[in-house]
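S2.1 Query sequence (NAD+ diphosphatase)
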Amino acid sequence: MKFCPQCGKPLETQFRDGKDRIQCTDQSELCGYVFWNNPTPVVAAIVEHEGDIILARNAAWPETWYALITGFLEAGETPEEGILREVKEELNLDAEIVELVGLYEFHRMNQLIIAYHVRATGEIQLSEELVDYKRKKDHEIQPWQAGTGKAVQDWQAKRGIFNEVISFR
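Output structure tokens follow.
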């Protein structure tokens, strides 16, 4: 952004609250806009279906990359509602929440991930965003270093599973 979304004046980088931040050149009471760059909330699910864990591949990813079901939390919904919606949209499965796995930072994408373990029923039908899925037993999944991989690692550890973390999926 080069111009303020509130008043249209130029934006510039200035030191504020201990960091360089993009803000409006008009810092009067009339505007005072600051781009805080807060993380985006994302929901993620370790989807248990018929005794297996479902990992999916996004159409934009390399053929070897499979991960959890994820999506952006929408305005007005709780994280629980959001993840159940995402499981339905991405896999066409009805799900129930088993447990909150945890909260995880994903700095590269400026996201806060809210991860759940869900149990799902129905017949899998992939959305247009997904091109493939794999079924894995809980002990067969190798967690990855970033993002939702940390949730998988924590979830497995609660079950006494300690697999090696891989750096590249």
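The two ends are 34 Å apart (CA to CA). The longest helix spans residues 79-91.
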